[in-house]
């Protein structure tokens, strides 16, 4: 017994010593501390770092979610005209078993049904049938309900505390100008996320989209508003930024109309026109044929050869849209610029001090080292003989520019090519820009042919950007579509400053180039592009490509007014069939220049010689007996527009049987007239405007808008209109036939 007790006592003492060991409490303390740290870190993560996530999850147990989808920012033209807007349409549905009115203004269920029918312009039977489906949780009443109807419905629902009505908004992108500048603006998908697909919509998608937010709140089941004294949980969001473009809507429409007309009239495959501000690089217009409706971008395009058209399911059709419809050809399609590049060759030689404007060259054929097939000759058989540099540019003599390039040398020439921006994209804020194809390891024949723009490519924007440097003291600017960003409240939050890329040539060289290019229009191949009162500087081009030179491109690059250029303009026609010279591109460019400078408010300044010509009566040319195609296509060369009835085929053998005004009618020398293939002249009466007190420029523009011609008389061409015949229609003198001649007296 004692032995047992002693043994038991020993074991207890041993156990007591083990329990009192310090290792146990320390271990427990460490575990408790670690758990505390983990709990604290978790609390920090839950309550601070991931507060919104867990707040949303918790509130889902007690609150109803209210969507706060950010509005996509609007896009405006330079003048404030809307180009892209976001609007809402609404889907209205009901939960039939909950459809009832409560409160002091309680309506009978029958009245609720009849009111709904009236508000949504549905029949009584349609709403009754929907309300009778009491076993269903949601029944559609109407889709695409406009904002005005939605607002009336919400006000009625709140007034009569009507439950069981669900209103689901859908955000849609709307383009008020339809196809205008479609390749520049681009479009956004109409899906819930409304993502930019092309153009500016794609480039600035993130800024336009904004940031989504959320709100959880206890809501009134009847009115849909938050209950009084209830709390809500919100996550911050904001609407997208708005954009204001440099695009001038008036200039854009003028460029689009001019290039479309030129393509139709001269049977070209396609056309492109670009207008930019040479001092800032701002894109004022970028037009191309085949513009598409931004509100229906997936419509079957002209030119699609496939049998079916399902672009949303067919990758081939979708690729066709990206490559031929949605893209901006001014930045994606390289072309051989041809003789417009001679201006750059001349500028390089002048800048290096290797030539003067009066140095004389031979226009005889030039043999190029390593190229033995044929010499490079002038496009005019036999050449032009001896030419100064100025004369060579005016008459576009290829051999002279080959000699200049050889004098410059391969290395220096291609250094300038790079400096002009022709080895890299311009950096414009549009998607899909290419950089053209320039010789990477040029040999003498490459240098020779590229001196006049053949056997390499640039994009239209690269070419006109280089030309613009002549009007900007030799500085190349980065082209820019967006001018500024707007806050959701419509205030300017950021402006896009003009960005100079580099100084390419000296200011003195740039000024000399303007003088040389003015000579091309005043005395050379660019005379058709002249705009009296503005005076144009520019360069013509006709280039060919293909295995047998079967493809032709005609273009004209211009700066105007020549004395102080406000715009740089490039017009290009691809594969024109009804012309083998550059004058169709000059005609389109002339129209764009005249209308663009008018839109910008640039006043015309006539020389005495120009005024003398305007005030010397000139006879309307006789086109009777000509084919209708010849009359319509060639009249613009001498500043007349021959109009015909809609549907007349310019490629037919039909001849002009009559014209109005008749041949020999005296006018100021420019205007429009009607040509008839059946001998009939439509009455088409127009009111005679009141020209009293207008200056020459205003009178000419008013006559053009009215579809009338002018004859100018009087002792003071720089004065104002003091009389007219016939008198204005406002003085009860009736109307006249469109194209009639109004005689104005200036004093």
Question: Any chance you could write out the topology, listing elements then pairs?
Answer:
Layout: H1 2-19, H2 23-49, H3 51-59, E1 64-68, E2 75-76, E3 82-94, E4 100-101, H4 109-119, H5 124-131, E5 139-145, H6 147-159, E6 162-163, E7 165-174, H7 182-185, H8 199-203, H9 205-209, E8 213-217, E9 232-235, E10 242-245, H10 249-265, E11 270-276, E12 283-288, H11 315-324, H12 329-332, H13 342-351, E13 360-362, E14 366-368, E15 371-376, E16 386-388, H14 389-395, H15 398-408, H16 410-419, H17 444-450, H18 460-468, E17 475-477, E18 482-486, E19 492-495, E20 500-503, H19 507-523, E21 537-545, E22 551-560, E23 567-574, H20 583-599, H21 608-614, E24 618-619, H22 628-634, E25 640-643, E26 658-660, E27 666-667, E28 671-676, E29 685-687, H23 696-706, E30 709-713, E31 721-725, E32 735-737, E33 741-746
Helix pairs in contact: 2-3, 4-5, 10-20, 13-15, 13-19, 14-19, 15-17
Structure overview:
This protein is of the alpha+beta class. Among the domains are: 64-245, Penicillin-binding protein 2a (Domain 2) (Alpha-Beta Complex); 331-524, Beta-lactamase (3-Layer(aba) Sandwich), CATH 3.40.710.10; 608-746, Trypsin Inhibitor V, Chain A (2-Layer Sandwich), CATH 3.30.10.20. Helices cover 33% and strands 22% of the residues. The protein is built from 23 helices and 33 strands. Strands 2, 3, 5, 7, 10, 18 and 19 form a seven-stranded mixed beta sheet that branches. Helix 13 (342-351) packs parallel to helix 15. The longest helix is centred in the first third of the chain and has 27 residues, at 23-49. It is globular and about 105 Å long.
